[in-house]
Amino acid sequence: MAYLIGVAAAMVGASYAAVPLYRRVCQATGYGGTVQRRESVEDKISRHARDGTTTSREIIVQFNADVADGMPWKFIPTQREVKVKPGESALAFYTAENRSSAPITGVSTYNVAPMKAAIYFNKIQCFCFEEQTLLPGEKIDMPVFFYIDPEFETDPKMEGVNNIVLSYTFFKVNDS
């Protein structure tokens, strides 16, 4: 009996640890287009400002939003795309609405496509991996503040990459 209780407790613990562990593994490996972290965004911005880095290439960042099966939310990007030059920061918004009659808590994951561009895409502020609880019928706007590293423009592997897609998926955390 103690063995079964221990296994059940371990499974519950693993389910709570899944999102933070997934986030750390993805950020460490770049798996699934998740942005890897080596140098902080603030350090990159400061370094490029000191160096006087300027760019001319314009990148179109497109936004995608999905909800997992069984998640009764409407989740959409407020704008479909923005144009930004490497070295510039930009602000975008997503809107989430709880279309059910009960409070629901969700958490989002994201990825960047093409995956090879993910190392240059830096989120400064984001709602991803943070639990969001919406009351019945509640609607909120969630900001994403991001920066594209100017090194994007000089990387030969990025030649021909003129569009980046930032995609979020919301998953239901629990039944509130």
Q: Which homologous superfamily in CATH is the superfamily?
A: Ctag/Cox11
The end-to-end span amounts to 30 Å
**Average pLDDT reading:** 83
Q: How many domains?
A: 1
Radius of gyration, CA atoms, in whole angstroms: 19 Å
Largest sheet: 5 strands, mixed
Kindly identify the CATH topology.
Ctag/Cox11 (Pfam 04442)
Q: How much beta, percentage-wise?
A: 35-45%
Number of helical stretches of at least 4 residues: 3
- Overall 3D form: globular
Number of strands: 9
Helix content: 10-25%
**Given this structure, which CATH class is correct?**
Mainly Beta
Structural class label: alpha+beta
Give the ordered list of helices and strands.
HHEEEEEEEEHE
CATH architectural grouping = Sandwich
Low-confidence stretches: none
How are the strands of the biggest sheet laid out side by side?
3-1-9-5-7
